[in-house]
Design brief:
about 15% strand, alpha+beta, globular, 4-stranded antiparallel β-sheet, Butyryl-CoA Dehydrogenase, subunit A, domain 2, binds flavin-adenine dinucleotide, 3-stranded mixed β-sheet, Butyryl-CoA Dehydrogenase, subunit A, domain 3, Butyryl-Coa Dehydrogenase, subunit A, domain 1, about 400 residues
Length: about 400
């Protein structure tokens, strides 16, 4: 019997959706991912498939044309996409995250204007926080937005923007009050349309993995946007809005870790039963059984942590602790599981014919992007200490 990757999902509707995505991944993604990946080609046909399944509107309310499904379902979908090709779950990440921010914090006009468009394939979203001198320390950004009559003028440089060339709208973190203390009170987020004059799309980074999706530089050279582009309408809440949306991003990246680890494990356990050494399948050597058992246990723990974080978000609870733990654990074990899968494959793992080499190049991204493992540990510790007043 085929493995049921949706077995841990509690909600029957979500289980069906995830199973359907899994069927599509087997049919359309796994056979084609390597070709798209090695060409670093944007996977337009696969994006169409995702769009046809409504995945770009997965978290958008029905009144705007979206599927309005749960975070549990979203996590399961991202696991399945990443089991096929991690980049697909990356392309949808900033899109869903920005849609979430608009739906949670946007003005009525912003919701009315953007949300129906985000369901459609023609408008994708990007999130732009990182700068040449500010990554983990996001409050150190230097991009400014200065009020000028009914407009704001944005100036600054951004880096590592996923969907950076193809997005229709960018959620951009700026400083409207660079002198504010605490620093986050001077941070404001803007919804910047792609064709804003003075908004320049820069070079695309040549990456180790995470191919197909473009990650780029952006710059703002006296880019003028109306005051109505401020997310939520008022200055000073941008940091809080974006940090809340990053919880959604961390669930996505945790799920990506699970998906990549699962793919590496699936390949390993099949290979171990076929490949023989010393007169028997290598699976029969106990050392390989122990390795596979550890890999599977890690993946299961990562899966359950990720669903737990997603369910907390579904319940409307604060989920920085849970999303941080899920992201930290899932992405670290993805690294380990991929390397263990390579050990099981032996020499053939080092060739480029197997998708394993892609998993090996994709895994490190997940321990860096959306907050490094060190930053997750800081978020976790700060959250835990709240429960231990002395
Ligand atoms: C492929 C890719 C796609 C990306 N997509 C996006 C995107 O779409 N939008 C976006 O805004 N950004 C994006 N990023 C940026 C990403 O989020 C940052 O790279 C990440 O947050 C780390 O920031 P940094 O690279 O500046 O590293 P740094 O902040 O310079 O960190 C370097 C090292 O110092 C450690 N460190 C930093 N502070 C502390 C501390 N307080 N305690 C202990 N250790 C610390 C870090 O853990 C890390 O090990 C992307 C990055 C990549 C590689």
């Amino acid at each position: 019997m085929a493995r049921d990757y949706a077995a841990d999902i509690l909600d029957p509707l979500a289980r069906d959706v995830v199973n359907n995505v899994g069927v599509w991944v087997e049919k359309e993604v796994r056979p084609n991912a390597s070709e798209f990946e090695h060409a670093d080609a944007f996977p337009e046909p696969l994006l169409k498939g995702m769009s046809d399944m409504g995945l770009f509107g997965i978290k958008i309310p029905e009144q705007y044309g979206g599927l309005d499904l749960t975070f549990e379902c979203y996590a399961g979908v991202c696991m399945e996409l990443a089991r096929g090709w991690m980049s697909l779950a990356g392309i949808i990440n900033t899109h869903v995250l920005v849609g979430y921010a608009i739906n949670e914090y946007g003005t009525a006009e912003q919701k009315q204007y953007y949300l129906p468009k985000l369901v459609e394939p023609e408008m994708r979203c990007a999130l732009s926080i990182t700068e040449p001198d500010a990554g983990s320390d996001a409050q150190a950004i230097k991009t400014t937005a200065r009020r000028d009559g009914d407009d704001y003028i944005i100036n600054g440089q951004k880096m590592w923007v996923t969907n950076g060339h193809r997005a229709g709208v960018y959620l951009v973190m700026t400083k409207t009050d660079p002198a504010a203390q605490p620093r986050h009170k001077g941070i404001t987020a803007f919804l910047v349309p792609h064709d804003t004059p003075g908004f320049v799309k820069g070079k695309k980074f040549d990456k180790l993995g995470y191919k197909g999706v473009e990650t780029t530089e952006l710059s703002f050279e006296d880019a003028r946007v109306p005051a109505s582009a401020v997310l939520g309408g008022s200055e000073g809440s941008g940091f809080q809005h974006i940090m809340s949306a990053l919880e959604v991003g961390r669930i996505n990246v945790a799920a990506r870790g699970v998906g990549v680890a699962q793919a590496a494990f699936d390949d390993a356990i099949r290979y171990a039963q076929k490949r023989e050494a010393f007169g028997k399948p290598i699976f029969e050597h106990q050392a390989q059984q122990l390795r596979l058992a550890e890999m599977a246990t890690k993946i299961r723990a990562a899966r359950l942590l990720t669903f737990d974080a997603a369910r907390k978000k579904d319940a409307g609870e604060r989920s920085d602790l849970d999303a941080g733990m899920a992201k930290l654990f899932s992405t670290e074990i993805a690294q380990e599981v991929v390397l263990d899968s390579m050990r099981i494959h032996g020499g053939v793992a080092y060739g480029k014919e197997l998708p394993l080499e892609r998993y090996y190049r994709d895994a490190p991204l997940m321990i860096i992007a959306e907050g490094t493992s060190d930053i997750q540990k800081i978020v976790i510790a700060r959250s835990l200490v709240r429960d231990y007043p002395v």
